[in-house]
Design a protein that fits this description.
Layout (H helix, E strand, L loop, with lengths): L11 E3 L10 H4 L4 E16 L4 E18 L4 H11 L11 E10 L4 E9 L1 H10 L2 E2 L9
Parallel strand pairs: 1-5
Antiparallel strand pairs: 1-3, 2-3, 2-4, 2-6, 4-5
């Protein structure tokens, strides 16, 4: 885990409906990104959700997705739009996701800090107990 100022313009690691070819990619990302590249989130496990996945921290597992860099002029608007999509509000105990900073690994092996929406603690606990893991870490592979 790394820490970052919540206002720091970081790229986003997306692993579900925001990935290219998935339902929300064009709705939220088209025209707002400067770069999208394959990446993985180490030490996280993917769980199937109701039409979208959840990532939960877990040693030794990886989640596959994309590292998305917003256009500078679109960053604030995109951050707000993604927070709304994920129904994330800082400090709200009803959150399904928490937006956190994690190191993700690019295809070339280099790492970069990124915003990641992980399952909120109460959701993560339920998923660990009774959730359906996506063993290969790639939500799109079974779609």
């Amino acid at each position: 885990m790394i820490t970052s100022d919540p206002g720091t313009p970081l790229p986003f690691f997306v692993y579900g409906t925001l990935r290219p070819g998935a339902a929300n990619h064009d709705l939220f990302l088209r025209g707002r990104t400067a770069r999208e590249e394959p990446a993985r989130l180490p030490d996280a496990m993917l769980y199937d959700g109701p039409g979208y996945p959840y990532a939960v921290e877990r040693q030794g597992a990886d989640v596959r997705g994309e590292l998305v860099t917003a256009r500078p002029e679109s960053y604030g608007e995109l951050l707000a739009a993604l927070d709304r999509l994920e129904e994330y509000a800082p400090g709200d105990p009803r959150n399904l996701y928490e937006r956190v900073t994690r190191l993700v690994v690019r295809a070339d092996g280099s790492s970069a800090p990124a915003w990641v929406y992980l399952a909120a603690p109460r959701v993560a606990a339920r998923l660990r107990a009774t959730g359906t893991p996506i063993e290969d870490g790639d939500w799109l592979s079974g779609r």
